[in-house]
Design brief:
The protein is mainly beta. It is built from seven helices and 81 strands. The protein folds into seven domains: about 120 residues, Sandwich (Immunoglobulin-like); about 130 residues, Immunoglobulin-like (Sandwich); about 60 residues, no CATH class; about 120 residues, Immunoglobulin-like (Sandwich); about 120 residues, Immunoglobulin-like, CATH 2.60.40.10; about 130 residues, Sandwich (Immunoglobulin-like); about 120 residues, Immunoglobulins (Immunoglobulin-like), CATH 2.60.40. It is a single-pass type I membrane protein.
């Protein structure tokens, strides 16, 4: 409210609503499992929802679940605990079949479940509780997001035959491959299982999602002895090693992998589980050989097998017989040789040709040959004793130079090596394909399913072609050619070739390109994913990251041509363009909207041997969307005045005509100084809500409505404002987006008629020396009578360089004195002294005035009165005229001049950072009635001069010494009055940074006042004295005598009251001393 005089004049002020509303914590609280929750197609979805804060915790609450899908913003009812007809038709059948359930765990908690997720189940799920109480207080609805992704987990054991048969004590090796193509951050857990008929399966050994290795129940001892191992080979291969099979190991063995994802609540959830085909293992009991000490017979089993998981070729020989084991080794893989002797206390040695690799004693102590000690240190050669009879030799990785014959040599401990038994292994080649004399081509059994052929383009040329090569195909290939005559072989020759297979994914490079990154809403955007390299089966996924925590699939194009959509299919189009060495995948975004804003990437994985091998993702490309510029034009009444307790209507009309169907969101704001408080708003669907700080009593007095035009009307009844309108448009997909807001302000003044509170309005100017005591006066000249009136007094301060009025001190109408918190004014507030000598006088004293106290001070008085109910009512308010205070610092100069007198502004540098410094000097001018400091003239460090105000004919620059600068102003006039000072910038040259500014300092002020010569009369009295004159210029100023009744520029050291008393004494012409 504002006060006015009895004549109807008043001070305009924006109406203030009481916005202090103490809101406690919400009583009812609904919580749901935090999202986004990533689940795969076909898996189970489970969401918990809990409610608390109702008056009765024991009554079972009615809870409902809804969903809002990405392609359709409309909420769809799914299921309710209290209404069997709640479900929409799209979910009704799944609810009736219990595929979708909602069950109470307790009266205040439910579990929502979908047994088998479908791709279309992705969306934003809402859990809401039905309120049967009379009041609403709290949160009754909460949402979480569910993302449904493809099940890309792949588990296979391609090298394991359906049946295996081993003897007790033999070694078993099986391999399994497990990988996933999801772009989300997931972990895999892996396990090998043994399943016996009539029994539950039991794990042999497992690798957890946290990479913890654990043996299964009953296998702990064998794991600790090193007889059971699980090795991860590369990115996706898991190998099971069982050194000594037991009869209890017989059964069906298979591998299984689980894919885990971490939900936002930090818990891990299994989103997928797959198992490979079973391998039936048959373990036969071992037959022991008896040993005659005089005639030693040893049974030796030599096994050669590979990391690819092929079954070992196994041979058993007795006493001194030599044999060759079948098998092929690929360079870079693992070669494992096993020597089994049914006799104890033997010494054994492994040899390659005639060179001893390693010797193992009966107790397991090893000695390594000098040529192979380096391989042992690097872990490439390992020999171990497994039990009493088994001895293993492992080479990893196998190199080309490792080809040759390997010998397992054994002898009794009490006899020398002369009594040894040698078993040799000669490296042979596995048959791939043959070409007979008649031209018949025959594939070997292992390559029957492979694309392999042999051709003879010339009489002396034979070519082997093998398509879709794998890393396991690497190794040495031999071409053996035989000549035949009369059905008999006359000559044979062979040549070998070393073949290296490099994974094809290492040659595939992925990059993403977009010709337009920032587009207007509604335009099309084309993204191009370039896949460069050999043509291999790939799976490509387009992804969009809208924020730092959410990464969404748009679609996945699989290696077999299938497409799986995760985003809204209507928004996108695909195009694939094949070229010789690269493939371009195009993603077209139709009619881009704010939904498509984010960072796009294409991700490629190569699918070979049933394994997904992920390549580095493409570079990110950010797409931003620009909304059209708003052309909204509003009209409102700039100012309104109304009396207290009357109704006020404020209209805001839209003048512009929209080019498309438009909705408007309207917000009414109350502006007080620099802050805005929302009163009420209407969204684009015309839903009206009040601001959070509007009390219920105020909401009953305020309303708004829309009238024809359109025009928006705010009604304030019993009146005890800025309008902001936001224009909403629909894009081609039906999504609403808003343009920039447009606002108009109406200044509302509420008055109480015939109130006569008035403060002295005359503007005052005070000048004081630094350290003096200053007293500011605020006087009520009317409206202070009556003991029932109480006053709230506020002193406000505005600095010279600021336009913000800040409260210094307040005396409340109840007599409470307070200092509003302001860190910048803390020093000034500590030197203030507030006094009230009479009921209508309020004085503010400043002790030890500082230069920083310069500025404008203003007193504001509010009049209060108690009503009949004992409540304080503000009746009026008024502000006094501003008081401008100037504090002069000792050493600063003041000049009083007449028209056309020249004056000089010196600028002397007394200290500098370096003798190499260069200076830039700028002189400034500030009028006494203004706060703006305007530059006059600048001399730059390169000696360039600049006239900043266009007064070059009046300015003269001087630079008599390196550290002395001056600026002389000529042809002066009273308009040149004010404060003058200079600012110096110090610059230094740096070899690395160039010129850099190292310091900025300002000089003191020079105050210049002008007297109009037409107001000065000459003096002839010989007794005129020149008090305080210090120079010829000052003497000329001191001769100004014979002043008329017109008051000239005041003495800088006199207060306003002293000037008034001096005026009364000037009845005769006298000589006035003007002190500088």
């Amino acid at each position: 409210m504002t006060g006015s005089s009895k004549y109807g004049s008043m001070t305009r002020e924006v109406m203030s609503l009481n916005t202090q509303h103490h809101i406690g914590e919400a009583k009812v609280n609904t919580e749901v499992q935090a999202g986004p929750l990533y689940r795969v197609v076909g898996s189970e979805l489970s969401i918990s929802c809990n409610v608390s804060g109702f008056l009765s915790e024991s009554i079972t609450k009615e809870i409902q679940f809804r969903v809002k899908k990405p392609a359709n913003p409309t909420e769809i009812n799914i299921i309710s605990t209290g209404d069997p007809k709640f479900s929409y038709s799209v979910y009704k059948s799944r609810v009736r079949s219990d595929e979708i359930t909602l069950k109470h765990e307790n009266p205040n908690s439910v579990f929502f479940k979908i047994q088998r997720l479908e791709k279309d189940d992705e969306g934003e799920y809402d859990c809401s509780v039905v309120n049967h109480e009379s009041n609403y207080d709290g949160t009754y609805s909460v949402k979480t997001t569910v993302k449904v992704i493809d099940n890309s987990l792949s588990v296979s054991s391609p090298a394991s035959p359906p049946r295996l048969s081993y003897n007790e004590g033999d070694a078993l090796t099986l391999t399994c491959q497990a990988s996933s193509n999801t772009i989300q951050h997931t972990h895999l857990s892996f396990a090998w299982y043994l399943h016996k008929d009539g029994e539950d399966r039991k794990p042999i050994i497992s690798l957890g999602r946290d990479f913890t290795l654990s043996p299964g129940s009953g296998f702990e001892g064998r794991y600790q002895d090193g007889h059971i191992r699980l090795d991860k080979m590369g990115e996706a291969t898991y190998k099971l090693n069982m050194a000594q099979l037991k009869l209890s190991d017989q059964g069906r063995i298979y591998c299984q992998a689980q894919e885990w994802i971490q939900d936002p609540d930090q818990s891990w959830y299994s989103i997928s589980e797959k198992a490979a085909k079973e391998t039936t293992l048959n373990v036969k009991a071992r037959s022991l050989w008896h040993i005659d000490r005089m005639c030693v017979t040893v049974v030796v089993s030599l096994c050669l097998f590979f990391a690819s998981g092929r079954s070992p070729a196994r041979h058993v020989v007795s006493g001194g017989e030599n044999f060759c084991t079948g098998g092929d080794s690929a360079r870079g893989q693992e070669l494992s040789l096993s020597c089994n002797v049914d006799t104890q206390n033997l010494k054994k040695a492994w040899l390659r040709g005639n060179v001893e690799l390693v010797r193992i004693g009966p107790t397991g102590i090893q000695s390594v040959g000098p040529q192979y000690s380096g391989k042992v240190k690097e872990g490439e050669l390992r020999a171990s004793r497994i039990g009493d009879r088994d001895y293993h030799l492992i080479l990893q990785p196998v190199r080309t130079e490792d080809q040759g014959q390997y010998i397992c040599r054994a002898w009794l401990q009490d006899r020398g090596p002369d009594a040894q038994i040698d078993i040799t292994s000669a490296a042979i080649f596995t048959k791939v394909i043959s070409l007979s004399q008649e031209g018949v081509v025959e594939k070997a059994g292992e390559f029957m399913s492979r694309k392999v052929k042999a051709t003879r383009p010339a009489a002396d040329t034979f070519i082997l072609e093998l398509d879709e090569v794998r890393p396991s195909d690497a190794g040495v290939y031999e071409c053996a050619v035989s000549e035949w005559e009369s059905n008999s072989k006359t000559n044979s020759q062979s040549q070998t070739a070393n073949v290296t297979v490099v994974p094809s994914e290492s040659f595939v490079k992925v990059s993403l390109i977009s010709r337009k990154n920032n587009v207007p809403v509604g335009e099309n955007v084309e993204l191009m994913c370039r896949v460069k390299g050999p043509h291999v089966p790939i799976t490509l996924t387009w992804s969009l990251q809208r924020d730092a925590s959410t990464l969404d699939n748009i679609l996945t194009l699989y290696y077999d041509g299938a497409i799986s959509w995760s985003g809204d299919q209507r928004r996108y189009q695909l195009k694939v363009e094949n070229q010789e060495n690269e493939v371009f995948h195009y993603l077209l975004i139709n009619g881009v909207s704010q939904r498509e804003v984010g960072i796009y990437q294409c991700r490629v994985s190569v699918f070979l041997d049933n394994v997904y091998k992920k390549l580095p993702q493409s570079n990110p490309v950010a797409i931003s969307v620009q909304n059209p510029t708003s052309k909204l034009d509003l009209t409102t009444t700039p100012a309104l005045t109304g009396n207290i307790n009357t109704d006020i209507k404020i209209n805001c009309s839209v003048n512009s005509k929209p080019s498309a169907p438009t909705h408007y969101a309207v917000t009414w704001l109350l502006k007080q100084q620099e802050e805005s408080t929302m009163i009420m708003k209407s969204d684009r669907d015309a839903l009206v809500t009040f601001g959070p700080n509007v009390q219920p009593s105020h909401s009953q007095r305020i309303s708004m409505k829309r009238t024809q035009g359109p025009s928006f009307e705010l009604n304030i009844r019993q009146a005890r404002i800025s309008t902001m309108v936001v224009e909403w448009l629909q894009d081609s997909h039906g999504d609403w987006y808003h343009l920039s807001p447009v606002s108009k302000t109406t200044e509302l003044t509420v008055i109480e008629p015939a109130n006569d509170l008035h403060l002295e309005k005359k503007e005052q100017r005070l000048t004081a020396r630094e350290g003096d005591e200053v007293e500011l006066k605020c006087n009520i000249i009317s409206g202070a009578s009556g003991p029932s009136f109480f006053y709230k007094v506020s002193w406000l301060y505005t600095g010279h360089s600021s336009s913000v009025r800040s409260p210094l001190v307040e005396l409340d109408h109840t007599g409470l004195l307070s200092y509003p918190g302001n860190q910048e004014l803390r020093g000034l507030q500590g030197r203030l002294h507030f006094s009230r000598p009479t009921q209508s006088r309020f004085y503010l004293g400043i002790r030890r005035a500082h230069e920083e106290d310069n500025g404008t001070y203003q007193c504001k008085v509010e009049q209060y009165q108690l009503d009949q109910e004992g409540h304080w009512q503000q009746k009026a308010s008024d502000s006094a005229g501003p008081i401008s205070l100037t504090v002069n610092v000792a050493g600063r100069t003041g000049l009083n001049l007449t028209r056309s007198q020249n004056f000089t502004i010196p600028c002397h540098i007394t200290k500098q950072s370096s003798n190499e410094s260069e200076f830039q000097v700028t002189w400034f001018w500030q009028k006494e009635s203004q706060t703006e400091q305007r530059p006059i003239f600048t001399i730059y460090r390169n000696a360039t001069l600049q006239d900043r105000l266009g007064k070059g004919d009046k300015l003269r620059f001087g630079h008599p010494l390196p550290k002395q600068f001056s600026l002389t102003v000529s042809k002066t006039s009273p308009e040149d009055s004010g404060l003058y000072f200079c600012e110096v910038e110090e610059w230094l040259l740096s070899l690395s940074l160039g010129w850099r500014k190292v310091a900025v300092e300002k000089s003191g002020h020079l105050t210049v006042n002008f007297y109009d010569e037409g107001l000065v009369k000459a003096i002839s009295e010989p007794e005129c004295k020149y008090a305080g004159a210090r120079s010829q210029e000052e003497i000329s100023l001191a001769k100004i005598c014979g002043l008329s009744n017109t008051l000239l520029t005041p003495n800088p050291l006199q207060t306003i009251e002293a000037q008034r008393s001096e005026e009364k004494k000037r009845e005769k012409t006298a000589c006035t001393d003007i002190l500088m």
